[in-house]
């Protein structure tokens, strides 16, 4: 029994000893604010007062910031970092985290690289766009290789100066104020390009050799390039989109059988949810299992 207690005490001591080793030094940033008043020697003496010796302070210090703002980076244990955080002039102490590159290749970045979904799966997805309509002759909406729309599709194509196909399967337009600008066409046809852009970004075909005036040439494509598209034109050349029309578009799109709604428009201010056509429309879309991205 006495032996067991002695062994237990020994193990406990060993655990206490190893605990110290678990607390390895990690690179920490010590931020000290705006003024580049302090130099490396101040940072060094701060470290020395916590670490106990000049040589361990020298080993610990990785960067001194002092040209444009004040602070330093040093290898510290949790306790040492906490002690530094208490020192005068220290604003924050935080670990050296690893950041990621951001990108202009958004679909790849989000994991929607080319061919992630099978063509058959994708072909059954219907993406609805509440926007300025679309330019139906645009090659992003060419239906070569597409079969008929999936049977769940219950929408329609208002063919006033507009032709649907097996890619661009639905089109409606709304202008309850009868308020047309010069250049507007009373049709789902997009006269300003916004809806053609958002529709092709969400679900347009892959188009090789696309560029911006010769710059950044490559393949332009939607996130789901084989999906079907239905456009609901509620915005007009004057740049306005009315609540009453937006709600009618949601009401139709949900009943038509879209799987996803993309809505790239909004108020300039903040409105109450119960007086906000996008909040009301997207709430009911989500209740019907339709992912709505605004
Ligand atoms: C659609 O694409 C096919 C294949 O590239 C092409 O032959 C056809 O002319 C295109 N249709 C339209 C309407 O541009
Ligand atoms: C449809 O609109 C386009 C663009 O304004 C125009 O060129 C074309 O003639 C119109 N087609 C019809 C049938 O109205």
Write up what this structure looks like.
With 294 residues, the chain is α/β, with parallel strands linked by helices. The chain has 2 domains: 2-95, Alpha-Beta Plaits; 100-293, Rossmann fold (3-Layer(aba) Sandwich). The protein contains 9 helices and 11 strands. It has helices at residues 2-22, 40-51, 54-60, 78-85, 106-109, 119-123, 194-203, 243-256, 277-287, and strands at 26-31, 61-65, 71-76, 92-95, 126-131, 168-173, 207-212, 215-220, 228-233, 260-263, 291-293. The strands form 3 sheets. The chain has a 5-stranded parallel beta sheet, sandwiched between helices. The longest helix is centred in the first third of the chain and has 21 residues, at 2-22. The radius of gyration is 31 Å and the shape is elongated. The N and C termini lie far apart (71 Å). Mean pLDDT is 90; it is low at 1-22. The structure holds 2-acetamido-2-deoxy-beta-D-glucopyranose (2 copies). Residues 161, 185, 189 line the site of one 2-acetamido-2-deoxy-beta-D-glucopyranose.
Question: For the CA atoms, what is the radius of gyration?
Answer: 31 Å
Associated small molecules: 2-acetamido-2-deoxy-beta-D-glucopyranose
User: Biggest β-sheet: count, sense, barrel?
Assistant: 5 strands, parallel
CATH topology description of the largest domain = Rossmann fold
Order of SSEs: HEHHEEHEHHEEHEEEHEHE
Number of self-contained structural domains: 2
- The strand order across the widest sheet is 6-9-5-10-11
How much is the average pLDDT?
90
The backbone outline, from C-alpha atoms, is elongated
SS strand fraction = 15-25%
């Amino acid at each position: 029994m006495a032996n067991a207690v002695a062994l237990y005490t020994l193990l406990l001591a060993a655990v206490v000893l190893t605990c110290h080793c678990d607390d390895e030094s990690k690179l920490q940033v010590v931020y000290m604010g705006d003024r580049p008043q302090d130099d490396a020697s101040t940072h060094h003496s701060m470290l020395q007062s916590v670490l106990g010796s000049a040589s361990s302070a020298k080993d610990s210090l990785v960067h001194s910031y002092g040209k444009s703002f004040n602070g330093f980076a040093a290898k510290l244990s949790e306790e040492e970092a906490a002690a530094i955080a208490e020192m005068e002039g220290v604003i924050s102490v935080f670990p050296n985290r690893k950041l990621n590159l951001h990108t202009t290749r958004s679909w790849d970045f989000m994991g929607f690289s080319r061919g992630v979904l099978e063509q058959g799966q994708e072909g059954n997805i219907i993406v609805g766009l509440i926007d300025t309509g679309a330019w139906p002759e645009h090659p992003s909406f060419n239906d070569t290789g597409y079969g008929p729309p999936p049977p769940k599709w219950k929408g329609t194509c208002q063919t006033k100066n507009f032709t649907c196909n097996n890619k661009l399967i639905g089109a409606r337009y709304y202008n309850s104020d009868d308020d047309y600008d010069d250049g507007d066409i009373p049709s789902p046809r997009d006269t300003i390009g916004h809806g053609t852009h958002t529709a092709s970004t969400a679900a347009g075909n892959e188009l090789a050799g696309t560029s911006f005036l010769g710059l950044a040439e490559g393949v332009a494509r939607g996130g789901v390039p084989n999906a079907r598209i239905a456009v609901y034109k509620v915005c007009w050349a004057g740049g306005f989109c009315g609540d009453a029309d937006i709600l009618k578009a949601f009401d139709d799109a949900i009943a038509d059988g879209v799987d996803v709604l993309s809505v790239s428009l909004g108020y300039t201010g903040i409105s109450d949810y119960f007086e906000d056509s996008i909040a009301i429309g997207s709430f009911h879309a989500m209740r019907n299992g339709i992912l709505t991205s605004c």
